[in-house]
Structure formats: structure tokens, C-alpha cells
């Protein structure tokens, strides 16, 4: 029960990697807010059935007012958030030459701008407490070239820059900020994408297996624990040894 007494907000937790994060932190004692544009109640039910504590809050993370409303609801129901996991993201595959500016902006609005909105909403409570953990999801695609991801790679590099800058600004408040970079992870969304990625990417990893969401949960649990108090501004590659940094 490593996270007993903590409240964790996990964005994009209605499915995929976020769902695995929510289940893991809840299993280790955290009260979890499943914050998603989609309905997170099936994940909440899984947590409650296992004896944990969770609520589902629906919000559009690209809308600052929606994030502010979600923060108020979470605080009212679960108290001040100690842990913020910025997991929601999108990764449409599109060659640069057919990409529109609207598509470029849509990716940045969720993968980068939303990190600003959630940090603005949840950092004040952490600062008041003098303890906080923020984890941002980036991708090992920042260190590898896969065609059709100019917008995505640029937005996930921005997430790394945001992680470093925020870590610096919040260190005096006992708040750490780190990032996790997975490889290609099997989720409903990646399964709906180009099938050849599942042939190509695992072969580039040292561990040549297709990554699953549960491969990432140990790192998340560590980063948001007291054990990781002296680690901040870092990007952790949990990618089967593809990027050897
Ligand atoms: N799956 C992979 O292969 C992979 C690899 C590297 C990095 N990542 C990153 O990990 C994170 C999770 O990936 P995933 O595959 O689990 O994604 P996913 O598509 O399965 O889930 C994303 C979640 O975000 C939610 N969401 C989307 N837009 C939203 C919005 N505007 N407001 C609120 N919620 C919104 C969706 O409803 C969904 O539940 C993303 O940041 C992604 O870029 C994924």
C-alpha cells in the first residue's frame, strides 16, 4: 500500500495505458480520479470491485475551463491531488506533406497545451502541501524515426522540455516532475493503426516483445512514490531498450 493516503489524478485513464496506471495506483492505496473525455466509469467499477477508491470525472483537457471545473470536482470528492499523471494523448499517423495546420494544432493542443492547463489547475494544491508528483507521458519516438509523426514527435519533445522546465520551477515546493517514454504499446488505439508497426518496432528493441500497458506501471508507481524524491526533470525510457540514452 505504497500510495495509501494519496490522491492521484490520471488523465486519459478511461482506457489504454491510463487504465493500467489507474488500476496500479489504486491497488497500491491511492484514491484515483479517472479524468477523461470518455466515460471512465468502467475503470472506476474495476477499482471499486477490487476494494479500491476511485471516481470518474469527464472533461475536455484541451479546454482550460473544463480542466478548472474538473479540478474543483476532484478536490471536492477526493481532496487535494498529490499526484498528477498527464497521460492523455493522441498520435494520428500522417505524412507531413499532407498534414494540415489544423491537424498539427490538434496534436499540440492535447499533447502539449493540456499539460499546461492541468499543471496550472493542480500545482497550487501541491505547493500548499509541500509535496507533489507530476508524470508526463512522452514517447521513445522522440529518439527514433517513424514516418508520419512530425507533429507527434514535436509535441512529445515539447512534453520533455515542459518536464524539465517545470521540474526546475517546482523543486522548492517538494514537487517532482518526470516523464515516461514507452515504445509501441498494444492498446485499442494502436491496434487500430498501421499493423506493420507491430512487426517493425519490437525488432528494434533489445527486448523483442510487443510492449503492453502493464510494462509501464512499475515505473509510474516508483516515480510517484517517496523513493523517487530525488529524481526530477528526467525522462525514463521504459521501452524494452530501444532508445539507449
Ligand atoms: N500506445 C502507444 O504505443 C504509446 C507509445 C508511446 C507513448 N504513448 C503515449 O501514452 C499515452 C497513452 O496512450 P494510449 O495508447 O493509452 O492512448 P489511448 O488512445 O488508448 O487513450 C487516450 C485517452 O485519452 C483520452 N482523451 C483524448 N482526448 C482527450 C481530451 N481532449 N480530453 C480528455 N481526454 C482525452 C481518450 O478518451 C482516451 O481514453 C499518450 O500520451 C500517448 O501519446 C503511447
UniProtKB/TrEMBL annotation:
Protein name: SDR family oxidoreductase
SMART domains: PKS_KR
Residue ranges of domain Ketoreductase in the record: 6-183
InterPro entries assigned: KR_dom, NAD(P)-bd_dom_sf, Sc_DH/Rdtase_CS, SDR, SDR_fam
PANTHER family: 3-OXOACYL-(ACYL-CARRIER-PROTEIN) REDUCTASE, 3-OXOACYL-[ACYL-CARRIER-PROTEIN] REDUCTASE FABG
Pfam families: adh_short_C2 (PF13561)
Superkingdom, taxonomy of origin: Bacteria
Family, per entry: Belongs to the short-chain dehydrogenases/reductases (SDR) family.
Residues in the signal sequence: none
Amino acid at each position: 500500500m505504497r500510495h495509501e493516503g494519496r490522491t492521484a489524478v490520471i488523465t486519459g485513464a478511461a482506457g489504454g495505458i491510463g487504465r493500467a496506471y489507474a488500476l496500479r495506483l489504486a491497488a497500491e492505496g491511492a484514491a484515483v480520479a479517472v479524468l477523461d473525455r470518455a466515460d471512465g466509469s468502467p475503470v472506476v467499477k474495476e477499482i471499486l470491485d477490487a476494494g479500491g477508491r476511485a471516481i470518474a470525472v469527464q472533461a475536455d483537457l484541451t479546454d482550460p475551463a473544463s480542466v478548472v471545473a474538473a479540478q474543483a470536482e476532484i478536490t471536492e470528492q477526493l481532496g487535494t491531488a498529490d499526484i498528477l499523471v498527464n497521460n492523455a494523448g493522441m498520435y494520428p499517423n500522417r505524412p507531413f506533406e499532407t498534414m494540415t495546420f489544423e491537424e498539427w494544432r490538434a496534436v499540440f493542443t492535447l499533447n502539449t497545451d493540456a499539460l499546461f492547463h492541468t499543471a496550472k489547475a493542480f500545482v497550487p494544491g501541491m505547493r500548499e502541501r509541500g509535496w507533489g508528483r507530476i508524470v508526463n507521458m512522452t514517447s521513445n519516438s522522440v529518439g527514433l524515426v517513424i514516418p508520419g509523426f512530425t507533429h507527434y514527435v514535436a509535441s512529445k519533445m515539447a512534453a520533455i522540455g515542459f518536464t524539465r522546465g517545470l521540474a526546475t520551477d517546482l523543486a522548492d515546493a517538494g514537487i517532482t516532475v518526470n516523464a515516461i517514454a514507452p515504445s509501441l504499446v498494444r492498446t485499442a488505439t494502436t491496434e487500430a493503426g498501421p499493423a506493420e508497426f507491430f512487426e517493425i518496432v519490437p525488432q528494434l528493441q533489445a527486448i523483442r516483445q510487443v510492449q503492453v500497458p502493464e510494462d509501464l506501471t512499475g515505473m509510474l508507481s516508483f516515480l510517484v512514490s517517496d523513493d523517487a524524491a530525488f529524481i526530477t526533470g528526467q525522462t525514463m525510457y521504459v521501452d524494452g531498450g530501444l532508445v539507449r540514452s
